[in-house]
Specification:
The protein is 34% helix and 19% strand. It is an alpha+beta fold and 505 residues long.
């Protein structure tokens, strides 16, 4: 980081009056903070790393107060960095800002194979942290475990389940699967059936694997009750909203069975609870039904959730969850993205498979292509239906697919909790075009943005329904003319983005 970049970063922090996912502020006016281990750990364990800024006082509205001694501060921060495992290699920058010296320490992300980074004095279990917003939180046992299994190439779908015998697998489905494999590879039929089951990871040492149970067992939920799907229809925008008769759910179902059985029943549940339009072709007179959400997109999302969910002992108590709301459909899958995959790479890069054995079986039993086409299919189906882009959220300990319907608008997004609002902003790429009320104009907007404002705040102030319109018609032209500026210009799509009037702060 250059000195000028540090000054700009400090100015943005003062404008926002807040820390962030990748920024932590420390005063250091009277000495080096004695315990930086939590932040060093959390920054090292996230892909973007992070930046410590010394010399701003959070308790005094992030006023620049300076640091006590630049040389000694760097020395003592480095000493704390060396107490981490693996050691943290901070990069320091210092500059004069508002008449005092401030300093930054850039904390690089460590390689995924070396995570978690933790404070050696506390040990891995108590000394490993994760960054959530502007807070450093202790890693859960599951989060630590997820790094271990990736590093050691452990696949939980291949673990054996002693309580189940081969006789409890559904014979007809199993024979059909084996016949398919024989047809693909004629020499495969030369093996004994027990050998085939071993090679296909249905069994291990004659004992069924978890993958074998989830695909062939007569009733998998007799052993793993929560390896199922819970599906609900909420009469509002969030869990807890109630209907006119105070009902919490308009439909509520637990879906059990094998992977293929659950997929079909889940798609049926979704179709049953969707609004359906009947469209008549004016030229041919033919009738066509259009569902609220494209069924192929829903099916792919459910398939992905079941095939790529975490099946470790840490998530045995967590089912896949389907939530219908007024403006969207959410599919929650236990366990976040596996390995090095990021949300930005979905559908583009070749992912690491969390459950390779289960995925191969599902390819034959459900028609899943297993060719990394699920995400592109969801995107294409939503686009073809004229609906907003799907949103993929890699939350803490779960992965969520959000499909928005044609009702999504500023008003429905505004009702969502702050942590969920921003993901919806970028899904709304089109909508009803409406004029701003005559009593609101450019000058009003510029005066309103004397303090940094979010897209939602601007849209609410201007009385506009769709965020797409407020950005296209007002914010973007003002940005181009230099009358408005972004608090995070290097990250225009950031969830923390605010807009402010140039020359008025």
């Amino acid at each position: 980081m250059l000195a000028e970049e540090l000054r700009e970063l400090a100015a943005r922090v003062q404008i926002q009056r807040a820390e962030a996912q990748y920024i932590e502020v420390k005063t250091a006016k009277d000495g080096c903070p004695k315990r930086l281990y939590d932040t060093l750990s959390s920054f090292s364990n996230q892909d973007s790393g992070g930046i410590l800024i010394f010399g701003l006082d959070e308790r005094a509205a992030f006023q620049a107060v300076g640091v006590y001694d630049l040389h000694d501060l760097q020395k003592k921060v480095t000493e704390q960095c060396n107490q981490m495992d693996p050691p943290v290699r901070a990069v320091f920058t210092f500059t004069e800002y508002e008449g005092v010296n401030i300093c930054s320490a850039e904390i690089p992300a460590i390689d995924l194979a070396e995570r978690p980074c933790y404070y050696k004095g506390a040990g891995k279990v108590k000394g490993a942290y994760v960054r959530v917003g502007d807070a450093d939180l202790p890693m859960t046992d599951y989060e630590i475990y997820s790094y271990e299994v990736y590093r050691k190439h452990v696949h939980d779908d291949e673990r054996i389940v002693e309580r189940i015998s081969v006789s409890m697998l559904e014979r007809t489905r199993l024979e059909r699967f084996l016949n398919d494999k024989k047809a693909e590879r004629p020499q495969f039929s030369m093996l004994q059936e027990s050998q085939m089951l071993e090679m296909l990871n249905v069994t291990r040492g004659g004992v069924p694997t978890l993958a074998g149970i989830m695909n062939f067992c007569i009733y998998p939920q007799g052993i793993f009750p929560q390896y199922s799907i819970t599906a609900v229809v909420v009469p509002g925008y969030e869990i807890g909203d109630v209907g006119e008769d105070m009902e919490r759910f308009m439909d509520n179902k637990r879906i059990c069975g094998t992977i293929s059985e659950m997929v079909e029943e889940a798609v049926g549940f979704c179709k049953r609870n969707m609004k359906i339009k009947t469209i008549i072709d004016p030229d041919t007179g033919r009738r066509r039904d259009k569902t609220e959400y494209p069924l192929n997109a829903v099916r792919e999302a459910v398939l992905n959730a079941l095939i790529h969910r975490d099946y470790s002992e840490h998530t045995e108590g967590t089912p896949v969850q389907i939530d219908f709301f007024k403006d969207r459909l959410e599919i929650h899958s236990p366990g976040n993205l596996y390995g090095r995959m990021t949300v930005e790479q979905l559908g583009v890069a070749r992912p690491d498979l969390r459950n390779p054995a289960l995925a191969v079986m599902a390819e034959s039993l459900t028609g899943a292509e297993n060719r990394y086409s699920g995400i592109p299919t969801i995107r294409k189906e939503m686009a073809d239906a004229g609906l907003p882009e799907p949103v993929f959220e890699n939350r803490r300990n779960e992965f969520v697919v959000v499909l928005y319907n044609a009702m999504v608008s500023y008003r429905s997004i505004a009702k969502r909790p702050p942590v969920l609002r921003e993901s919806a902003l970028y899904a709304v790429s089109s909508g009803d075009i409406e004029e701003v009320p005559e009593d609101k104009g450019i000058q009003d907007l510029l005066e309103f943005c004397a303090q940094p404002r979010t897209k939602i705040e601007i849209a609410e102030y201007m009385g506009v329904k769709t965020l797409y319109y407020i950005m296209k018609k007002y914010v973007n032209p003002l940005l181009q003319s230099g009358k408005l500026a972004m608090t995070l210009p290097e990250k225009p799509q950031s969830k923390l983005q605010r807009y402010y009037t140039v020359g008025i702060r």
